[in-house]
Please model this.
Amino acid sequence: MKTFSFLTFVSFLISSQICVEAATYADLLNTLHQKAGVDMGLSPIFELFNETSNVPTLVRLLQNVERNNNKLSTLHNPTNDAYLGSLIFQRGLIAGFCQIIGGFIPSFISVNLDAPTQDIYNQWKRPSVLLNMEHMQTIINNYNHMKQTQETYAQLIVNEMLALGNVRKTFKENTDTIATWFPALSTNDLSKNSVKTIMNNYAVIQQTVNTHLTNVNTYLIDFWSKRDNWARFIMGKDIDWNEN
Model:
């Protein structure tokens, strides 16, 4: 799996939303069905989660983590303390991941095509561009591969979210401790061993949460890239199946 930063994820998502008159993956599939004269049943591979019951649970978990994380939104670091600076930085990453991931998990198929895929679609959607039987059969032949890949990524994300759920309570408890202590602390208190212990304990659970969210981010981006290639394949472009 490739590793992508949070900023990479944000820029990737923004780039898929700014196309003029952009089509969605659902639009692409509807056009395919019109050209084929039949619904080819490809929607499941373009959705991350086919079981709709998973989506509300995952979104609620992200909202819970975000809510607790935001308890520290007013923390500041006037003395540039390294411990506190790291804590504030990690808090910002967690907030960003929760918002982005929570916003896109429920709406995967309704997201706009990225710009290169949109350019291909603009030409391919024309009625004069026909879908021949040979290519239809090639799509059918590769369906199982695409579906298995989609299911693999969905399970990877669910596993990370389950692991995140397992530390949700500890994250809340440690966040509440930090949120209670810091308003009453003077800058001198930050150097006390007892305070450092509290901050270190929080840093551990905070990093655990951030690691799970980072992994989800990586899987989302990786799956998204494959899905873009599948869209291009459906429209007749060659792709490397060893990477997709």
Summary: The CA atoms of residues 25 and 79 lie 49 Å apart. Residues 6-234 form one domain.
